[in-house]
Every structure is written in structure tokens, then in C-alpha cells.
């Protein structure tokens, strides 16, 4: 039986990624494993994700991790103040305005970390 979800993200430069997650998202690793070049993060809601160093970083062109928020606009403003740049899309089925895609059920926004990983934040309406 599947129990807990654990996201794994690649990084070409682990120290650069660690600095981004600290400076932009105010997250610090709960564990650092030098031998495997891996950082493990724990979030307030019990979720975890890790970042590991690999030359494959930045090759995915899809959303790799999503965060939920109760106030997308406030969260985007906070992240923009920390230098986060949100993606804009205008493709069939997805159009953003000022970085936000909206439906009747939710609002979503995407940004990339320093390693090219696509991160989504969304708010259910």
C-alpha cells in the first residue's frame, strides 16, 4: 500500500540549489548527506522532498513539484520580492496573465528554481 509522497529533484549544483531554497523559499534542509550529495527538506504539512546532484538537472520540461497555498497572490508577491520569476504561458489549454493561470476551481503559477526544475504553486477556489 502506498503511504507517503516524497518528491526528488535534480540539481546540477547542490550548493546553488540550497542557496535558492533558503533565500527564495526560506527552506533549509533537515538532512544533508555528503556521500550521496543529497539534501532532504521537510515541510510543515508533513511532506518531504530531496534535491540530489546530477548532470541530468534541467532537462525536464514538465511540472516537477507543486505547493498549495491559501493565498496565491500574496505568495507570489512574497516570492517576487525574493527574486523569483514566474513563467508565462500561452499555449492551447493554458494561458497565464501576470504569471497566473485561472479556472473556476483553482489559480496556478509556475517558476523555475536555479536548477531548471519547474515548480508550481496553486490555490483552490
TrEMBL record:
It comes from the Bacteria. Pfam families: Glyoxalase (PF00903). Residues 3-124 form the VOC domain. InterPro entries: Glyas_Bleomycin-R_OHBP_Dase (IPR029068), Glyas_Fos-R_dOase_dom (IPR004360), VOC_core (IPR037523). This is VOC family protein.
